[in-house]
Amino acid sequence: GTAHGYLVETQVGVWTAQVQMVGIPGVPLAAIEALARAQATCLAAGSCPAQAPPANLGDSATPVAAPESRTPSNAPRSCSVNDVSASTPIARTPQPLPGNEMDLQRLTNPSAPPNIVLINTDDLDARSIACITPEGRSGITHKLELLKRYGQKAVFFVDPMPALVWGVAAIEDIVGPILEGGQDVQLHCHTEWLAIAGSANPLPSKAVGLNIADFPFEEQCQLLDYARTTLIAAGAPDPVAFRAGNYGANDDTLRALAALGLSYDSSHCPALVGTSSCRIGLGSENRDPVGHMGILEVPIGAIGTIGGGLRHAQITALTLAEMLCAVRHARDGGRGSFTLVSHSFELINRRKLAVNHIVRRRFGGLIKTLATMRGVETGNYKDSPPVLCLTGGSAKPLPASALRTGQRLAEQFISNALYGAI
Length: 422
What we know:
422 residues, two-stranded antiparallel sheet
């Protein structure tokens, strides 16, 4: 007779992970996904020992790994290796998937809360980091106080490239307070600093460029290795995630990150495809975490706009109402994560050194509301990273609303009139 069941297959670097379950009716799809994830994990680690199926599935459920004939490259934590080129996807051992009990719950319980990742990317000067104004600090210190007050998590992507000019101590001054505040530090990189680094430029060619994608694969490897090493020297833990300055990454960037042992990138902004500096080979339809070039790409969140487009989920681009509606929409749609972007300098006008109370209220209101929102929790890459959904396509964005759009336009007009452009 006909045997009914599941066949789940996913690509893990140069391997294919496959889970077959035959003759077991009514198995929850989330449980199948959990088994497939376990296979992906052991394949990425390079070994899949025999393992018993979960007790709730019975003796007939057996995960089966089907590796391809190709042998994975054991790339060291440097890109200066043989047989590695810009056209070679490199599989490295990622963070364990699922990374902890919270991730496992999210896989096996469809009603588990989504992981809302707050990304704070910070440039380096006294005004944009501390955001010192006549009204007091309104930058990282202010954000850390809010996060602590409401018990929320955030990710701070710190750029170590200014150390080329000011030394590692300047980066220590940023990393220290973030770690003391219990928050996550990950890797960021603005290559514009190379133009004023002079002889300190770590590239033998002394090449310069506005974005990391402007450099060939091998030089990207060298730059990212320098940035990672400097960030660690400044006191940060070994980073696992990256976001390119100006979103200016490409597929070579992801290959380089994989070669250096990082697991996550968040440079793809679906709402800005074709208009930003990002050249990653993903489209506006890729709105959920997806495996790409040996890295788990975690896209920036987006909402729908009137006319069928997308608008990115950044604190200066959306009102508080729009951000909260987007989070609730992600929760109600069962999405595993939704990424919001904020920069510390966005809370002030850097030319006037004045607090932008509209943007500041957006951030404060967001943190306060997320702390009490049912079915939602904030996360980071250190404790509860976003996870890959092995089934289904990208979730639909929050639909456009004429009312919310009108409110945003009015609020942006008032903000620009009162505080001027950032």
